[in-house]
## 1
Amino acid sequence: MESHRAETAPRQPFLDLPPLNGVAGTVRLPGSKSISNRVLLLAGLCAGTTAVHDLLDSDDTRVMLDALAALGCDIERLGPSSVRVQGLDGRLRVQEARLFLGNAGTAMRPLAAALAVLATLQGGRFELAGVARMHERPIGDLVDALRPLGCNIACPGNEGYPPLRLSGSAGGALALDAPVRVRGDVSSQFLTALLMALPLAAAERAVVIEVEGELISRPYVEITLNLLARFGIDVRREGWQRFTIPAGSAYRSPGAIHVEGDASSASYFIAAGAIAATAAPLRIEGVGADSIQGDIHFIEAARAMGAEVLTGPNWLEVQRGAWPLRAIDLDANHIPDAAMTLAVMGLYADGRTRLHNIASWRVKETDRISAMATELRKFGAMVDEGEDWLSIEPPSHWHAAAIHTYDDHRMAMCASLAAFNGLAGATPPVPVRVLDPGCVAKTFPTYFDALLGVATASQQQVPVITVDGPTASGKGTLSSELAAALGYHHLDSGALYRATALAVLEAGADAGNEAAVAALAARLPIRFELQRVLLEGIDVSDRLREERVGLLASQISALPAVRAALVELQLGFRRAPGLVADGRDMGTVIFPGAALKVFLTASAAQRAERRHKQLISKGISANLDSLRADLEARDARDMQRSAAPLRPAQDARLLDNSALSIEASVEQVLAWWEDVQPFATR
Ligand SMILES: Nc1ncnc2c1ncn2[C@@H]1O[C@H](COP(=O)(O)OP(=O)(O)OP(=O)(O)O)[C@@H](O)[C@H]1O
Ligand SMILES: Nc1ccn([C@@H]2O[C@H](COP(=O)(O)O)[C@@H](O)[C@H]2O)c(=O)n1
């Protein structure tokens, strides 16, 4: 089994979203985090194998998969979102393990309970730890419920908080004569953890769990009960205070199980539809009105704010109804995660939106009440907070803001919705900077792609950086690094001229026939995919770099009709969140209004040397002198032609990188980019 650990590439520091002005189309949701991790653990504990389909692939599910693998479960990947889990049948296969559970509450709590029970009955030593924030998230109520049963649990950091050490000797027993008592008013995950762990001790006797205090987040307990039933455990519920796991209970695999789309993740698109789907509804696939997830009730709150929502068995369609949205006053205890989205919808409302009974927000990935209040104020909103409530009044004047996300995926996804501010009358509409956007990997790694796949922006609002310069100055390298650092698209315009040249060669066309070459350029069947260039679906990336192709590209690029034929294609690359375009005339002709223009140069000797090294490293023999002569001839042709000659735009910043490393060049341009940003640095 391959490792499930997330890539450790450095995370992009920020993503700037331009003002967005609409949404349209269809979005497919990733699997629910709550269901995915519950199903994985149940599949790991039960007898037999379980094929889990539509599983969420995210940080939180990866730590659960890693933990199960460390505990001896065989896990086979069946496809990008399917795994087959061979369960332990309630028997520990390894007696000792140290499990790293990141910041996944849905892994820490139920695994702690299950391993405490198994270690007590069968013997074993387990250590469960996570990231620093996980060690600040209380688990004392669960520990307090398990210790009276005879479970040996130590909290070597702070009492009542992870990390946890669980131990026991073989042949132990659990004290289950009296009901197991657990508090339900801080987090429902403690009850869920016990409901999933105690069937392991219910083969011969019924186990009763009693909840102390008012149980919060009941819909999540309903998910637990529903999934337990799918795995053969029919819990009897008396109100929300008493739960009985019948004697003779034993986990049984359902064979195969499909994970629903994530209803909490749906909330961002429901909100986007309510705010910005003005022409046609936004379709959301993967979850519908019959969902077992409590956050599906977000629909009712969104409707109360004005959204028009149609529902089907596995889909939703959302369109703007009332506008501005209606401010609401809501007890949001039943939808604690999705209610964060209502706070951002409050920015678009006709008055003050109040959310109360949300104390659990304070012990989530971050203190979400405080974080939301701090960040929404940056947009200009008037926000008040209390121990268990938040109220939001929309900005009268919107500010471009850099939003901290506190390693909290929901903060990042919520922040993105502020980019529709132009629809609320922000004049001018302002961009939104989301800091550490990669934190969405916890539940929705492709969130920003999904959002930008359905959101529209006015082309003029999409920022462009142009990088022009002579051959082999490093334009392509610099531009692709900039695009990666900013999360922007990249246009290598030289590739379009090269592709046209290749098309001319392949068609055996006359390169001197301007109209014929322009006709080929106008219907260039070109696609860019994952750094590769496809012509009629065939990868021609390497062929485009051949010298004969570069030489012909340089010749045909002087033909005005050929240049004109490629203009629309190039303009089409200007898509949210932004574009880095490199070539010869990006700043002068194609994107004259670009926010930042760079003219990149290096001495001819340096450039010839770099090209020489580049070719040698690819195993292509080359002569330094002839390379230099060739690139100088090309530069001369590019500079002297009448159509879009190579020259710096008047407002371009000049960068001679003869003595600069690639990293230093990238840093310099990013610093220039910061100079032209409107974001307050509070
Ligand atoms: N600042 C730099 N320092 C050293 N080498 C560099 C630097 N920038 C780029 N290079 C190297 O120079 C070579 C040419 O760079 P690149 O292909 O990006 O140039 P280009 O301007 O896009 O060329 P062309 O116009 O032919 O497409 C590459 O091998 C690249 O790694
Ligand atoms: N905007 C542009 C880009 C390129 N060219 C011409 O195409 C040739 C190939 O470009 P590379 O950047 O890939 O080397 C180049 O020699 C230029 O003549 C152009 O005219 N305008």
## 2
Amino acid sequence: MKHFMLPRNPILREAAAHNEHSPNPSSHKMKPSPSPSRRNKSSKENAPPPDPNSITSDLKHFPSPASAKLKSPLPPRPPSSNPLKRKLIMESSPENSLSDSGVKVIVRMRPLKKADEEEGETIVQKMSNNSLAINGQTFTFDSVADTGATQLDMFELVGAPLVENCLAGFNSSVFAYGQTGSGKTFTMWGPANALSSENLSGDQQGLTPRVFQRLFDRINEEQIKYTDKQLKYQCRCSFLEIYNEQITDLLDPSQRNLQIREDMQTGVYVENLREEYVFTMKDVTQLLIKGLSNRRTGSTSINAESSRSHSVFTCVVESRCKSMADGMSSLKTSRINLVDLAGSERQKLTGTAGERLKEAGNINRSLSQLGNLINILAEISQTGKQRHIPYRDSRLTFLLQESLGGNAKLAMMCAISPAQSCKSETFSTLRFAQRAKAIKNKAIVNEEVEDDVNHLREVIRQLRDELHRVKANSNNPTGWDPRKSLNILKSLIHPREPNSSQNETVNCVSPSSLSIVPSEVSLVLKSPTPSVSPRISISRKSLRTSSILTASQKDSKDESKPGPENMRISFAKSNSSAARTAQTSKSCLAPTEHLAASLHRGMEIIDSHHKSSVFRRLSFRFPSKPAGSNPILPVDVGVQTFPQHDEISERVFLCTNCKAKTQLEVKDVDDSSNLQLVPIDCSESIEKPKTQVPKAVEKVLAGAIRREMALEEFCAKQGHEIMQLNRLVQQYKHERECNSIIGQTREDKILRLESLMDGVLSTKDFMEEELAAFMHEHKLLKDKYENHPEVSKINIEMKRVQDELENYRNFCDLGEREVLLEEIQDLRSQLQYYTDSSSSSVLKRNSLLKLTYPCEP
Ligand SMILES: Nc1ncnc2c1ncn2[C@@H]1O[C@H](COP(=O)(O)OP(=O)(O)OP(=O)(O)O)[C@@H](O)[C@H]1O
């Protein structure tokens, strides 16, 4: 216990010397008090960041209980988290500002469980206060607590020195390490019921509540004793867990996946972690109860309520006082970290699966990274050789790097079970403990004295002056108002957003928007706008669908059907699909809008014809054939409604070619659903008054619907592919987990071989364990093989290529290309026609009016 020394601070040293109740097992190691100049130097190296609230020596500035809750990063710490920098600091530090900071290792052996008792005797024997033997092999540590050790004993061994170190200004940490079910949680926090207020003095109470009980007692003692020096303490606590490599705030579990940050001033801290001031034991107990109830637990083969995360309870203790001797004020900051690590378990024995397997894999991986770090630190401490220290390998080591090989006194409480069934895990823990013992930390008192405070005060004063100057300058004659500008900027960044639902209404294609809307009757005949097909570049690749026909096929089929009927069917289809699309996905709105536009324009064409029919049955030319190989032969069409017997009236249609009147039975146009286009070719219309939809309109509509359906199919395919890709991601994750478990089994094998060589493991046991390990690994490999992501990946690729191939085949072999060309040509022809006719439209209109007005009944 050589590393626990008396406080260097004169007040506390004095206090410790006078305080008979204050156990300090290493008082003989006390070092001489540094000279003021030295103290100043060391203080500078550990100076916390300039915080106007903390650097003032005015002791009245401690927060009141009312303002105790705050959210902030972890408190300032000496900027020495960088090992290299730390090394430089340590080298330049005065020798006597350092404490002898070897890691203190205590092994606690839990009593046998009932089930284990049947197996026979314990395999671990305590040899002395600091040694034990297992299978004839002896291990020596700082202390060994056997099955009879009480919670109070553990506190005296670990907790009491920790409190004294903390009051002296040293960062102090306790890590509980060990196999699942070995008693870490029991030791650190005690059973849950021991935390309740009525059991506060119960003998089951764990280390943490005892530490805080002692801490508050000692703080009271100190404050009373040094009233004249205005000694004041304040403590603030946080509680977090690391589960599956993610940090959660246990005091506010809604704060998940918190990030660890590091900067030169504050060192390593957890962003947005809640900290609460504590003044009494009751405050701490409440935090513990709250935090522990939020911890992730699950059952393992050994422990029904196993902690599945690493949890870290942190308390920052700050003390301020004035020295009577030299009148200087001092601020000391120390941090207590109480860490309950998740327990390791051998997955091959427990046969875990699914989420538990992932958990176990993460626990074992981070423990193995901790072990690796401990090995490196031990090697550095023993050989003095500099090596890269992989603190960033895991959240645990990154967060607690200061406790591991840094500026902290560290006690490692290693929990073991003496049961035969836990032999190999116990060996593993003891080896870890042995390596940890070799580590040398470099703890220093984190103290700041008045000189620094004055300097920082001066800086603050200068900054305030600067601020005033800037404020004064801001009242400049230009009249520029920064607040106003800020508001303007804000309004630019957050413009008044229209109601999203309104937005949707605007974007959505309502089926009603596809209805025929009566348009204003104009004397000038409105040219129908060429239809715009949905523009979906990739949809071209998937035009062929299993459920639809190509345009050519559809054309040939449609020929047998009367046009209007067909149009109604198409319209209904597009209506429903538009509604469906609007419901399912916003992203599909654009193509649907295009479709709606196409349909609407189609209907406008019809409507124009309709109007022309109403309005003295004006006729106009509408090309129905592409102008490709065949020259455009304009077909004159008019618009008529379905005849209804009761409302039949005689209408006269004019053929623009022959000017022959055609009498057709049409009804008045009230009901636009009866609308249809009819050719007014004199020869055909007389002989064949049968209704027929112009092919150009029909094709455009059919094409639009066809593409929309193809798009839907394409979306469905994409959805399926996304599902497949998600599965692939899961498979990759699973593979990674399998790999890490296999890695773990290799490490286990090394340990087994070590045990075999040490004679701890008999050849028979070794072979048995080896066989079990191989079986487990075989199972994992089989699982890995069956769910191999590469196979799924290739399947997805193959499906993609097949689809592409089908699309190309559609496009080239099945006539899609021709259909599209035809459509384009149709549209071109229409455009051409209207361009040509626009110049003479006025003339024509006049002449047509002239021709048709006399026909009005
Ligand atoms: N020294 C002890 N005396 C009495 N009971 C103990 C002791 N140590 C552990 N136990 C009991 O053993 C059980 C498991 O202990 P605990 O939960 O502390 O193990 P653990 O090491 O934290 O396990 P895990 O890593 O799975 O969380 C608990 O019911 C606890 O009360």
